[in-house]
Design a protein that fits this description.
This protein is α+β, with helices and mostly antiparallel strands and 144 residues long. It has 4 helices and 6 strands; from the N terminus they run αββαβαββαβ. The protein has helices spanning 3-17, 58-69, 86-96, 119-122, and strands at 34-36, 41-43, 74-81, 99-104, 109-115, 128-133. The strands form 2 sheets. Strands 4-5-3-6 form a 4-stranded antiparallel β-sheet. A two-stranded antiparallel sheet has the order 1-2. The termini are far apart.
């Protein structure tokens, strides 16, 4: 080892790098802070700040409008649900007229084909934390 490396390591240890970190104190009475992005409201607890009325992302609104203009009957929504609400939300989607294609309650996921005119309403159902229109990812044809 060169003397410069030994000197740097010695300074780092002497300067406190080798010391254990002081424990952090967290106040349980501090209010949850809500941050806002362009397409969702999420609190620091990881849950939507208002799960009864989630907002649609601008791109999702655009895709629903495009589907309406193209006179499509339905759009496929990928839906994230509040913990423990997946099955109830899937049933509410069925009651709305959607075809639930798959669910996974362990991660709060639903994939459903929803009538275009009801897609925005489906996003506001109880238990929905986020809804997005599924978009196919286009890959260029690899053939030369």
């Amino acid at each position: 080892m060169s003397s410069a490396v030994v000197l740097i390591l010695g300074l780092a240890v002497a300067g406190g790098c080798g010391r254990a970190a002081a424990p952090l104190s967290v106040s349980a009475s501090a209010p949850a802070v809500t941050t806002t992005s362009s397409d969702a409201r999420v609190s620091t607890t990881g849950q939507p700040s208002n799960p009864e009325t989630p907002t649609l992302a601008p791109r999702t609104k655009e895709l629903i409008d495009m589907a309406k203009q193209a006179r499509q009957d339905a759009v496929v929504l990928t839906i994230s649900t509040v913990q423990g609400e997946t099955e109830a939300t899937a049933q509410a989607l069925r009651d709305l007229g959607a075809t639930v294609e798959s669910t996974d309650a362990t991660v709060g996921y639903i994939r459903a084909s929803v009538p275009v005119d009801l897609a925005a309403q489906a996003a506001t159902l109880k238990g929905v934390s986020r809804a997005d229109v599924e978009e196919p990812i286009g890959f260029p044809d690899p053939t030369p």
